[in-house]
Amino acid sequence: MVGVNPANIKNKIKRSEVYQKQKEAKAKDKKDRRKRDVEAAALGDEVPVKKVQRTLDNTREADETVVAPDDEEVEADEAGDEFARFFNNETTPKIMITTRPRPSAELFMFIRDLMQMLPNAFFYPRKSATVKQLCQWCNNKKFTHLFVLSEKSKVCNGLLVAVLPAGPTAFFKVSNVKTSEDIHNRGTVSPHQPELILNNFNTRLGHRVGRFLGSVFPHEPDFNGRQVVTFHNQRDFIFVRHHRYVFEGNELEAAAAAEVLDEGDEGQNGGAGEGGGHKKKVATLKGKDGSATRTRLQELGPRFTLKMRWLQEGTFDTECGEYEWIHKRKEMDTSRRKFHL
Amino acid sequence: MRVLTADETGLVKVWQVESRKLLVTHGLGHQSRVRGVRGLCWGLASDGTSPDYSRVHVGRENGVVEDWSVSHTAAKGKKLPASATVNQRSQREGCPASIVSLHALPGTASEADSPPTMVACSATGEVRVAPCDAAAGEGSSFKAPAPVHTAIGRGGVLATGGQDNDIKVWDVATGQCTWRAKNVPMDAKLQLSVPVWPSALAPLRAAHEDPALTALLAGTAHRHIRLYDTRAARRPRQTIDYGEHRITALCVIGGGGGSAHTAIVGDAAGELTALDLRALRRRRRYGEPGGGAVRAFAVHPTLPVFAAVGLDRVCRVYDVSGGGGGGGAPLAALYLKQRASRVLFCDEGRATPDGAIDRAAAALEGGDDGWGSAEEYEMGAGSSEEGDAEESEMESEGD
């Protein structure tokens, strides 16, 4: 059966049988090979070196705009850009979330999750205001960010983020939205400020987008809360996740800390002098033998994917505004190995 | 070919186009938005109309205008690499902040050989007219209506325009408005007036043909292209709808002996197209334009080549006919690292692979530049008068 190409079999039932058998044989082959390698490694025999797979990520086209880690010129530019005041904690972000003019009820589940994920976020109904009017209103009320969610068929499909008063505006396509209701074994969000992880924003444009997204959060995380929001860029898609983490080996301390938190006590070490058999301190993270500490994650709030469509200079103005970057499919998507962020 | 680019963090860079090499970066270590370069222009030669390619004026966001001298060394094989030097000669403070454009114009005083003046126009409408040499006097200033988004100057004349502020031509010496544009007639069916927002201006004819800036090409934020003749009428001679985005930059390519017939249009989404001025139709689109708004153009003084810079941090140099790069691609795309606001072309011709400069191109101008020589020289290098002499030089590897 191995040499037969199922595509040449005209009978559908027979064709699918042959294909299934080939699939199962391939999976069995892979499993046996793995088992052999594990046994060989256990016995100390030489394991055949696994070839590095060729992927789109590791064959990515060279991009001269990738920022070197020691680039002083880019650092100096970023020290004076529109987001520096957020990263310096000079300004605390204050976010207004709104929707398209007549939102569906299902969108509010997503908005609720967003408001739990983003500190200092407020929802206002859109009614019939234009985005320019919203920007003006937000400036009057000293908001720093405006989020406008658009949707199609009751699912969020677009996110416009404007940094105020005069900062850049970006529009992202939103996909694969999963609200917290649909997440299995989800945790509960606590009011602690989350930590922020920005992964793989390597090019100059990537830096810009990474800083744009990072400016939405205050940069004074509560490590007690062990909550983290991750923006992971891969192939120009930005995966947004909200987790609570716990380091392995510290479940007891974590449970103790959680109980202490429930009781309304903010102290990391628990109530001093209290009995009850709880450990008073959270254990250190470094292993004595230098081993890495494993982390377990519990997913919290929403899960969604962003892809940037355009980044505009100034507040929203698609008629007369200037674009810093706009995705032009025919010119920019010329190769499967070319990415912009 | 060499270009000079300036960006919003205050850096000025000199590039060798063919080898895509950065020759000089001026301002590293002093980057900030308040020192961002908003105006950049060549100095004026003694005849009052042609530019002096050894002198450049830099206008910054904080209202400081600096006067520099620029010198070049051509490469000679691999042993003598190409390089350039920039030296600040003087600076003038107290100019209006948020400069929109900076021009070196002939002297405004009544004497025959009055020194060239520098005209700085800001977004609030303040126009400062002062001698290029900071020590030669304070000059004068006048106020144009705000907001001003674009301005060009030539001879003794400055043209300004902005949102809801149609084009006005000012006499720089007296500060009087000599001509103001009138809007096109209302839309007949809808009875709605067409909004006014000139966002890019360019002179239609060369300086020696039209010293008083009577023929203007304007692009608006509402996607119109308009031709004006200030001697004939206040309304535009012709107007067309053009493109899908705000027009942010324009330049006119001289057509050899006759009058210019091609304009390059840059818009807010980075699109670069050629406009035929005779038929007012779009001729060609330049390939691989990038996604950022075009901020400025520079046209080579002798070759049919132009450079475009913008918010996508790349300077693209194109052949006007669209060839050279293959499929309309640019001759060179220089990654600038910062969002550039201004670009200028030096008057060096094309460099051949072994570093020699194409003398034929230099000879077209009829000047005696002597660019084929490998000797380093500085034209008109005066001692710096007031400001600090900042010097930075970066040697590059051979071409």
TrEMBL record, chain A:
Residues 93-317 form the Brix domain. Pfam families: Brix (PF04427). GO terms for molecular function: rRNA primary transcript binding. Residues 1-42, 264-291 are annotated as: Disordered. GO terms for cellular component: nucleolus; preribosome, large subunit precursor. GO terms for biological process: maturation of 5.8S rRNA; maturation of LSU-rRNA. Residues 14-39 have a biased composition (Basic and acidic residues). It comes from the Eukaryota. This is Anticodon-binding protein.
From TrEMBL, chain B:
GO terms for biological process: ribosomal large subunit biogenesis. It comes from the Eukaryota. Pfam families: WD40. GO terms for cellular component: nucleolus; preribosome, large subunit precursor. WD repeats lie at residues 155-180. Residues 361-399 are annotated as: Disordered. Keywords: Repeat, WD repeat. Residues 385-399 have a biased composition (Acidic residues). This is Quinon protein alcohol dehydrogenase-like superfamily. It comes from Tribonema minus.
